[in-house]
Amino acid sequence: MRLSVRALRAGPAPAALPVMLADLIREAGPGQPQVTLSVTGDDAALSPAASTVLYRGAQEALTNARRHSGARTVSVSLALGAGEARLVVADDGRGFGPACPPGFGLLGIRERAALAGGWADIVSIPGEGTTVTVAVPQLAPATVAGR
Question: How many domains are contained in the chain?
C-alpha cells in the first residue's frame, strides 16, 4: 500500500499533459473498459504543479474505474481554459453509495487539488457510475498571487 501511495506522489510532472493522458489510457489490457479522451484548449500555460495534480487525478480515477467499477466505458475530458484547468473522468460502472467512504486514492486527489489552489469533487451513484472532477489554476498559486 505504501509503495502505491508513494508512486502516486513521486515523480516529475508530465511534460505534455495531453500526451501523458493518452499514454495512460493506452495502458488498458484485455477486458478493460473502453476509454475515450477529449482535450480542449492549450496546455502551454499549465504549471508543472497543476499538470501533476491533473495527471495523478486521472491516474487514480482510471485505476479505480478499471479495477472496481465494472464499467464498460470511461470518458476522460481535459479542458484548459482562461486561468483554470479541469479534468473530468466519468465511468458507467456500478458506483458506490455514501456508506462506502472514499479510499486513500480519492482522498489524495482532493488533497493534491487543494494544495495546488484547486478543488476536487467525486460524485458516485450506485448502479449509474462515478464522476471525478478536478480543477486547478493553470498557474501555480504563488505565480497567480504574483510572488
Answer: 1
